[in-house]
Amino acid sequence: MISLDQKSLKQAHRYILFNCDDVQQYIRFQTSMRDGRCKTQNSGVTMEAITRSFPSFKDEKPRKDSLTYYGAITDIIELNYYELCKNVLFKCDWFEVKEDNYGMKFVHFDKRCYQEDPFVLATQAHQCFYVRGHLEENRYYCMKRVPRDLFNMGDQSNGGQEFHWGEPSNSSSNPTLLVDDGEVDLVRTDVPATITVQPLPTLDDQPHEINYEEDSDFDDSDWDYME
Question: Which residues form the DUF4216 domain (predicted)?
Fold first, then answer.
């Protein structure tokens, strides 16, 4: 059981009144304190919100636009309203965000902001992780990630019907051929049979045997000499 001070409880209760939704599925969030003992990161979060801000120092009027906030979870709180409603909140440290020459977002963990509004609903948070930069110390680049066990199965077809895609064709010029799924006959029955007569070979056509006695190269004179 975690007890909050009056200021934190008031901030959490006010945030729930303005934002209420179900917990985002398939995401495993952990606090930054636990991440310090692990090889993986699970505490990095981002949140997108539409707010009024000044795009640059030259602008005199604020403009309503969608902004992305980058932070890390420091605590996970579940508020139970007499068992009638439960809401999960993330208490986060929000960081100042900058952009390098290549358009990549990076933060400094020692430069924090929005300390008066640290809470965010679990449904509004998206998981991310931070990668340390090599050019500057304490610079961490933010990388968004796909939640674990989440697969993009595509849009489901209506009515459970299966669709088979094929090359486009004109039914008038290319009529559809009926395909018989049964056994295929290897003999054509739509044409008359052709009979070919092949005579049997005669004795004259048979190959002659070779007379080895007449063509022998064996010389009997050698045997006469030995006698």
Answer: 77-137
